[in-house]
Amino acid sequence: MKLYMKKYDKSVRNISIIGWADGPTSIFIAGRTGKRPLKVRVKNWIYRQRRKSIARRIRPNPHSLKQVTAFIKKEYSAAEMSMDSWQYRDNRASLREGLMMFRQIEQRSEAVSRIPEEQFPMDFHIYEIYIEGGRMEIEIDYRWDVLGISYSGNRKAMRKLKAMGRRIQLYYGVTKEDIQEESKRYSSLLTALASD
Question: What pTM was estimated for this model as a whole?
């Protein structure tokens, strides 16, 4: 397949798809994907080394999501978001859709909205933590063992929130089986600890 770029009238021989996605969420990069700059290669090497080092230090110390909830309430005064808020409804719908897609890839958004709650039950909660200059949301579904952490704020707050997110992830922990199987829970912890 040969594509042409009209503006420069150059042919494109390489096309990369990022994230193994298809459809409207795909990112396509057309053109040469040759050697990366030295700075990028060094950063990637440092990240890989850091990740390997952290992977060797992770030990089994799991906690249940109920324990994580008690921890964030005690340590950070997290407050559960109202189930009537638009953010709660939007995040819950997104998680429900994601779980359904994971379970049944061929179904899409309109099919998910038609499936009654009894067929795909959830025990979904969102906790909020506010600090000066930022906020954190912790999404938990006890039924499906889902823990999601997101945060936003200014630079100073982001450093604090990132440290809080790492601490929560560490508290949630992993089991010996998670480490051996390199499960999603293990991968999430490893990524949180290895990121700058």
Answer: 0.52
The vertex-40 CA angle with 38 and 43, nearest 5°, equals 110
Write down the domain spans for the chain: 3-34, 63-172
Distances (CA, A) of 9 to 5, 33, 34, 136: 5, 19, 20, 47
How does pLDDT run across 123-151, given as a tens digit for each residue? 999 999 999 999 999 999 999 888 999 99
**Structure-token match 């990022």, residue found:** 18
Q: What is the pLDDT of residue 12?
A: 45
Per DSSP, 32 falls in state -
Average pLDDT over residues 92-115: 76
Structure tokens at 87: 């953010």
For 174, other C-beta atoms within 10 Å of its C-beta total: 22
Q: Helix 184-194 crosses helix 38-57 at what angle (to 10 degrees)?
A: 120
Phi, psi of 118 (to 5 degrees): -65, -30
Here the tokens at position 39 are: 């700075």
